[in-house]
Specification:
Blueprint: E1 3-8, H1 13-17, H2 21-29, E2 32-37, H3 40-47, H4 57-73, H5 90-102, H6 107-119, H7 128-137, H8 149-165, E3 173-176, E4 181-183, H9 188-195
Parallel strand pairs: 1-2
Antiparallel strand pairs: 1-3, 3-4
Helix pairs in contact: 2-9, 5-6, 5-8, 6-7
Length: 199
């Protein structure tokens, strides 16, 4: 059975635009998924990326054109300038880690719930009430937001190191146990074809 390490930033608009399509691909091929939230700003600093605020105006102009276009393509609500972005993604990331350890809910729905809260619902994913609501909506105990903070912080940091070791430089990033890597929500079709043995 194939396995996918899903390196995700809960601040990434492109991870939001992936929706739950990766989960559909994984289910189609019986692949397991490990959700690995990480600090994308720290990743950029160590892999040559540029934070959005520091990008050239040409790149910002293309981003402002492409993100809404991708949202329309997938019929997803989207706010190019959310009220609570950027925010501190660590608390929500710790909740994802705690949920993965606890089990009992839908991890794909949880991750997408946080991303949707930021990019479509004008909610702050650093807010405790939002974190608990996202946990509950995905079938997890909302009290997971209050537990495992130390281990969550350790895993969050370890995920960054694992991402760098796996040659990850952005999000969403999918690393298959075959060694193949797929960057971006626009490469999910390639991931699907790879898992089908066609690419």
């Amino acid at each position: 059975m194939a396995h996918i390490d899903y390196f995700v930033s809960l601040l990434s608009p492109y991870a939001y635009l992936a929706g739950t399509r990766m989960e559909e691909v994984a289910a189609r091929h019986g692949a397991s998924v490990a959700y690995r939230p990480f600090d994308i700003v720290a990743l950029f600093a160590r892999t040559g990326g540029t934070p959005v605020k520091d990008r050239h105006p040409n790149r910002l102009a293309y981003r402002a054109e492409d993100l809404p276009r991708q949202a329309r393509k997938h019929d997803m609500p989207f706010n190019l300038k959310p009220a609570h972005w950027p925010t501190n993604a660590a608390p929500a990331s710790y909740a994802v880690i705690a949920a993965g350890n606890a089990g009992g809910g839908d991890m794909g729905a949880l991750v997408h719930g946080f991303l949707r809260a930021c990019w479509a619902e004008e909610r702050d994913i650093a807010d405790d009430a939002v974190i608990k609501d996202c946990l509950s909506q995905a079938g997890f105990d909302p009290n997971l937001a209050d537990s495992g903070l130390l281990s969550g912080a350790e895993t969050y940091a370890a995920n960054l190191e694992a991402a760098i070791e796996a040659s990850v430089f952005g999000a969403p990033f999918y690393v298959v146990d075959t060694g193949q890597k797929f960057w971006g929500q626009d490469r999910l079709e390639d991931l699907d074809l790879h898992l089908a043995g066609k690419l």
